[in-house]
UniProtKB/TrEMBL annotation:
<dbReference type="InterPro" id="IPR000182">
    <property type="entry name" value="GNAT_dom"/>
</dbReference>
<dbReference type="Pfam" id="PF00583">
    <property type="entry name" value="Acetyltransf_1"/>
</dbReference>
<protein>
    <submittedName>
        <fullName>Acetyltransferase</fullName>
    </submittedName>
</protein>
<feature type="domain" description="N-acetyltransferase">
    <location>
        <begin position="29"/>
        <end position="190"/>
    </location>
</feature>
<dbReference type="InterPro" id="IPR016181">
    <property type="entry name" value="Acyl_CoA_acyltransferase"/>
</dbReference>
<dbReference type="GO" id="GO:0016747">
    <property type="term" value="F:acyltransferase activity, transferring groups other than amino-acyl groups"/>
</dbReference>
<keyword id="KW-0808">Transferase</keyword>
Length: 190
């Protein structure tokens, strides 16, 4: 198996005023919180958004592991719908002391390049900043962070920076090159 060099960039916002929202796209695009923890739905989103960019770390998760993660207090999944069809999602995961990670964010391939991503990232980031308002017992958000890497979409870093995220760390590591899993095995060419 061959290895590839993967650059990972970590970005953050340290105040709600850092957020620079994108304009809403034209058409019937709605963003709705998936309030009922659903391992099946979350796995569908994960595999469908990340299948062509080699998201593989959660593919082996059991149903129980998905449920355990989704039922943690403060974990939220916000889904963008274009005319009723899931177009992408953002997953928020609270940490300690008011830190919220945008753990996953992205669009299904057919919905990229249509101005939905900037809008979804803006909306999801705003929900990270007001997460404690929906979850009594969580600390008020003081920092929102995320990471992206050289395997992600070509416009990911630019979108994050246009939304007001600032770079705070860069790492380059060798990783095994894996086949593109697609939303199901063999959906995309390697």
């Amino acid at each position: 198996m061959t290895n590839i060099a993967v650059t990972t960039w970590s970005l953050e916002q340290t105040a709600p005023t850092d957020l620079l929202p994108a304009a809403a796209p034209e058409g019937d695009v709605r963003i709705v919180r998936s309030e009922v923890p659903s391992p099946e739905f979350s796995r569908f989103l994960y595999a469908s958004v990340g299948g062509d960019i080699r998201w593989t770390d959660r593919l082996g998760w059991s149903h129980a592991r998905w449920r355990e993660h989704l039922e943690r207090p403060g974990v939220e999944t916000w889904v963008a719908y274009d005319r009723g069809t899931p177009a992408g999602y953002v997953e928020l995961t609270p940490g300690d002391d008011g830190v919220v990670e945008i753990e996953y964010f992205g669009l299904l391939p057919a919905f990229r390049g249509r101005r939905i991503g900037g809008h979804l990232l803006s909306y999801g980031t705003a929900r990270a900043w007001d997460l404690a308002e929906r979850w009594p017992g969580l600390a008020t958000t003081k920092r929102v962070w995320l990471h992206t890497c050289s395997k992600d979409g070509e416009h990911a870093m630019d979108n994050y920076q246009r939304r007001g995220f600032r770079l705070f760390d860069t790492k380059v590591e060798e990783e095994p090159e894996v086949a593109t899993p697609g939303p199901w095995p063999g959906a995309f060419p390697a």
